[in-house]
Amino acid sequence: MAEGGQEHATTEPQAEAQETCRVVHALRGGKIQMQEAAVKPPGEGEVRVKVEACGVTAADWQVRHGQLKLSTPPFVPGFQCAGTVDAVGDNVQSLEVGQRVVVVHSLSCWVERLVVPATDAYAIPESLTFQQAAGLAFDYITAYLTLHRHANLQKGQSVLIHRAGGGIGFAATQLAKNVPEVVVFGIAPEPQHDVVKENGVDHPIDVRVPDYDRIVRETATDGVEVVVESAAGKDLKKGLNLLKPLGTLVMYGSASSAGGGLFSAAKQKLGPATKFEGSTLIDGNKSVAGVNVVPLIGTDLSREIIKELLSLCEQGKLKPRVDSVFSFRNVADAQKKVHDGANVGAVILVPVIEEEEKAVQDAKQKAEAEKAEKAARKSVRKNKGGSTSSKSDGEAKAENEEKGGDEEKPNSDEKPSEDKPTDDGKADGDSKPEEAASGEADSKPAETTAGETDKEKVGKPAEVKTEDGEAKQEDGEAKADETAA
User: Fold this and answer.
1) CATH architecture of 19-136+320-359+424-485
2) For the ranges 215-219, 310-314, 383-387, 393-397, which has the lowest average pLDDT?
3) pTM here?
């Protein structure tokens, strides 16, 4: 009680709002969407990374649809990303705030602010952009294991690479050409031939050619030492027959068994065409191997290979190519592009594309303004209806006719607005989660080429429209899944 008997109001200290960030969540039923999550501090032995770019791989599709059982929905997918360390926990000596890093971690990488063990983050050279670094790890580790650990590629040998334009095929070509006098045959769609030749493929072959083995033998009459096969399907027998004695066929994924795309849930097991008689391998002095990077993430082997790859990048011997860039909002489109094999190089996710975000926010503001205007009109009609309630119907009609009949009549069928605004400013009945649009939507990725800066790679914003022409994010997940099916 203050002097004079007056009470002074006390002000309770308000808790600071918790910082949030954008994050991609994989939900039940194969759904995927961008949400908001709290930013966490790093613990002991951990660092926090402000993520600038994330890599998209074929394995991400498997995880999303439950074909790789690594977590239970909801969870944050993603095996790789790149950005800047913005916080360091106790007992971390290898990294410091402000350092540019690439992160390779089992899931959780598709988030704007990521906390991981310091041992899963690696300093990157200045020659790499964040987007190049984000597309490096998974694809190049797979290619490195294929060529240098399984096949033991040597000087003067030859290699046949299927899907030479894909992320792993692109990486395998660069690694192969670092071995002196190696000859590379690359299978890819004809429109990709110029790009794969520039990347190092000596003999591009159209993917539509059924007897590609005949074309290979026109140049390499005795066959090849290594076949890199991205599909567990009918072409494996051709690949095996192309091998010279002591040659190796290395396969990853199961593209050809999925009916046109990567990874079909219905055909995950190897069929009869992929079985090999032991006598065939023994008598031919040939070997077959497989690569799956996922269980190797976080092991000493994967850390050793990542460091070797970063060293090669610093020497200018490797240069990851960024095919296209998508925002977190359009994560389903990014996955669909990889799933369809439509990329030449890496497909990248970024938390936000500013021009695209501005279009979305402008659409929200417009929708909110229209809703407020509609509510105001309803209020005016309601007030006018109340002021004339004491008059007879005939008097009200005559008064309206005297005014020229311009007064807007209340709609007896229209109820006062009881819609609750959602996060995107629309009524509950019209609202949709910020779910990524499919590749069939109007949104388009920002196409990029190698050597451009990250800002240059963003390009034009994705444009999506509602049925009435207003900009809005579509729920294209269903379209993506229908297309994949």
Assistant:
1) Alpha-Beta Complex (3.90)
2) 393-397
3) 0.71
